[in-house]
């Protein structure tokens, strides 16, 4: 049984769920989970949690992401990306100075409000928005504030000209950001309809493209008995939290999931990790109702013995 984080490079044409389904067949294990949906047209870093590490999936999902996207100006689509039908167009000859694009990107850095696209997995009244969209039903969508840490223009041209000019950007953002919705917003700020022509996720939390394997790589390495060399430890998903090595008396209480006096590190951190021999045992946070106490949020238990994967 594998246990830890498998950084996967999701290829185009597959959903995140497709990747999990394939991995379950390749690895012959059920306890597998992904860490955030990527649309079929998007490729990039998709950390996969194996075994006990599935309990830590939300921490990877909540971590920041980095994307490289191409914004195409002149046409808006129903899905906000290249796969959708055109809903608005302006095919006039355009000349958009790079300096103007940088001004717009700067203005959209920080906290911004987004309305999730109709073609998305956000739920309204218990149904996913894309289910409404496929039936032609428009519903009111809740807006939300997302964090754009940085927006950088990657294209080097001094001006973007023509009927449908395009340019590449790099986005570092927090949880829940829709890059295609951001592309539409960039177009609006420039005064034109726009959509996201392509998208690659280059990092997810601390996981980068250089860490990743394709499904083909996974199949070959598993078959050769070498996949365990590349599966990263569960603790990589918890890197953002302070680790506390437990002594004997504390270990017994933590392993039983007891409510304990709040640790001083929780004054400056949302969560702390209790570990034994460097291995995560539990994530604790302040008790939501009892002042001065802390309670377990996740219990990982003791690591399972490793098996041979021939």
UniProtKB/TrEMBL annotation:
Domain Pseudouridine synthase II N-terminal: 24-179
Family affiliation: Belongs to the pseudouridine synthase TruB family. Type 1 subfamily.
Pfam families noted in UniProt: TruB_C_2 (PF16198), TruB_N (PF01509)
Transmembrane portions of the chain: none
GO biological process: mRNA pseudouridine synthesis; tRNA pseudouridine synthesis
GO molecular function list: RNA binding; tRNA pseudouridine(55) synthase activity
Leader sequence residues: none
Biological source species: Edaphobacillus lindanitolerans
Protein name in the entry: tRNA pseudouridine synthase B
Lineage of producing organism: Bacteria, Bacillati, Bacillota, Bacilli, Bacillales
